[in-house]
Specification:
mainly alpha, 3-stranded mixed beta sheet, globular
Length: 221
């Protein structure tokens, strides 16, 4: 039976680790999607998973992989991380991912997480943890890009270019002066529209929205 690409990549990683072929391992990891790496980390031995993690090329990549791993596997990685290294990784992790991990970690690991989050980051994580398990609030992201409805497309594009994490913007959420959600505009639509058009005139307003206390299964429906 022909093996899937996933299992072939996993076997290749194990073989490269055995051969101590660090350069080849790093090149392979750069080509793989972070969720595939996270899944492979769950299938690797603790020793091999630590080697893979330390050969990921930057803190952002490590944060993405950690967020996709099983909690018990994360614990193994955390045991081997110095605090300053963990702090750099946590700065790249979305609050909802950090909250989900902290919720499942043993007390000692949870404390290590808390000690390496900045005050602002910890406040965001604690906000999410106040919502009941399996609700929309517990799994939502707080990092959304919102702009006022009376801005023009040109002004919106300028705000996006100035944004600290502009590379993550795919949709602009349109709000009024009271920060109430009115609609959404895709980045593709902004690029194609006349720069003088206001967001309120091009946004999609037929939105499906929920409160943060709604059960996640109801959100899915």
């Amino acid at each position: 039976m022909k093996k899937s690409k996933y299992w072939l990549n996993l076997e290749t990683i194990r073989r490269l680790i055995r051969k101590d072929a660090t350069g080849n391992l790093k090149n392979l990891l750069k080509r793989l999607h972070f969720m595939d790496i996270a899944s492979m980390m769950n299938d690797l031995s603790p020793e091999d998973s630590q080697i893979v993690f330390h050969n990921l090329d930057n803190s952002q990549r490590k944060a993405e992989v950690l967020a996709g791993m099983e909690p018990e596997k994360v614990s193994v990685i955390l045991d081997d991380l110095e605090d300053n290294h963990l702090g750099l990784i946590l700065k790249q992790m979305a609050p909802d991912d950090a909250a989900a991990l902290m919720d499942d970690l043993p007390e000692q690991q949870r404390l290590k997480f808390e000690e390496n989050l900045s005050g602002t980051e910890m406040d965001r994580v604690e906000d999410l943890l106040t919502y009941p398990d399996e609700t929309a609030g517990r799994i939502m992201t707080q990092e959304v890009f919102a702009l006022e409805d009376d801005l023009t497309v040109g002004e919106a594009m300028e705000r996006i270019r100035d944004a600290h994490r502009a590379e993550t913007v795919f949709y602009v959420y349109v709000v009024n002066e009271h920060k109430k959600l009115l609609g959404v505009v895709s980045l593709r639509r902004l690029i194609l529209e006349n720069s003088s058009s206001q967001l309120k005139s091009i946004m999609l307003s037929n939105l499906i929205s929920v409160t943060p206390y709604i059960d996640q299964e109801e959100v899915a429906r």
